[in-house]
């Protein structure tokens, strides 16, 4: 799975992420954080990135666990 997060005020990077998103064939999500620049320095924007990432990973780790892969693997992932 792939999560792409980009600032809403970072137009060139938004377009690059949209192009990458279209090419992906795995489970995917593109999040555009309104009012955020490239480094998410604006108040509240980095927190929004963290919340989006946490939600994404919780969802996909839960799916991996339910399917018996990923988190339940006894050997280290490389």
Provide structural commentary.
The chain has 78 residues and is α+β, with helices and mostly antiparallel strands. It has one domain (2-70). The chain is built from two helices and two strands, in the order βαβα. β1 (2-7), α1 (11-23) and β2 form a beta-alpha-beta unit.
Blueprint of the fold:
Layout lengths: L1 E6 L3 H13 L4 E6 L11 H22 L12
Parallel strand pairs: 1-2
Approximate strand percentage: 15-25%
Spatial strand sequence of the major β-sheet? 1-2
Helix-strand string: EHEH
Roughly how many Å apart are the termini? 16 Å
Number of domains: 1
- Compute the number of strand runs: 2
Gross morphology is flat
Helix content: 40-55%
**Residue-averaged pLDDT:** 88
The assigned structural class equals alpha+beta
Low-confidence segments, given as residue ranges, are 71-78
Total helical segments:
2
Global Rg: 15 Å
């Amino acid at each position: 799975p792939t999560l792409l997060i980009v600032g809403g005020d970072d137009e060139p990077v938004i377009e690059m992420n949209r192009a990458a998103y279209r090419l992906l064939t795995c489970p995917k999500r593109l999040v555009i954080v309104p009012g955020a620049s490239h480094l998410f320095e604006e108040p509240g924007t980095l927190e929004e990135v963290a919340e989006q990432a946490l939600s994404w990973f919780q969802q996909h780790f839960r799916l991996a666990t339910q399917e018996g892969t990923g988190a339940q693997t006894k050997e280290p992932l490389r």
